[in-house]
Amino acid sequence: GAGVSQSPSNKVTEKGKDVELRCDPISGHTALYWYRQSLGQGLEFLIYFQGNSAPDKSGLPSDRFSAERTGGSVSTLTIQRTQQEDSAVYLCASSWGQGGDSPLHFGNGTRLTVT
Amino acid sequence: AQSVSQHNHHVILSEAASLELGCNYSYGGTVNLFWYVQYPGQHLQLLLKYFSGDPLVKGIKGFEAEFIKSKFSFNLRKPSVQWSDTAEYFCAVNARAAGNKLTFGGGTRVLVKP
Known about the structure:
By secondary structure, chain A is mostly beta strands. Chain A contains no helices and 11 strands. Chain A is globular, with a radius of gyration of 13 Å. At the A-B interface, strand 4 and strand 5 of A face strand 5, strand 6, strand 10 and strand 11 of B.
């Protein structure tokens, strides 16, 4: 079947606006991760879902960031009042089982540019 | 703080040269270890993984990695690289003690000159 799908692929927004990023994981994958990839910063963990619950939100940079997952499937990452430092590629990944016990399947990411 | 460290940010080498990328982590206890690769313009994909058993694991495209528990290391190797190995390589660790969060290193950009 299809892999992990993320939309939009690119998003340019003005500073102060809210943005919503979407992730469709592979069907049946119970674990879903959000990461942020910035130039020279590697992959920064944001949040992890097991089903619809988020056992680990420790990576969210500030209270402007929030995420939810519904029906054990689609997830949305919302950034309120965007700042220029939020510019990055936001990656979603999903996997079977208990998350880190099985390999992650990544989407192509959403490139966010805050002007 | 617990972390995953990749020693080299950039590596440049010629075809047929040998490659070794270092990865160290600071978690105690049981760990699952991964190397992911991101080829230019493509999404991240799994190169190889270690969960248990033989500490020398083999992955796709001739890559292998060795888990040395006493050194908290999981270095990636390839005896003879090709131009198509040009990519960014990420080490990742899942530690039971830290829940099921998969933590990535900062990545190493590898450029193989033809």
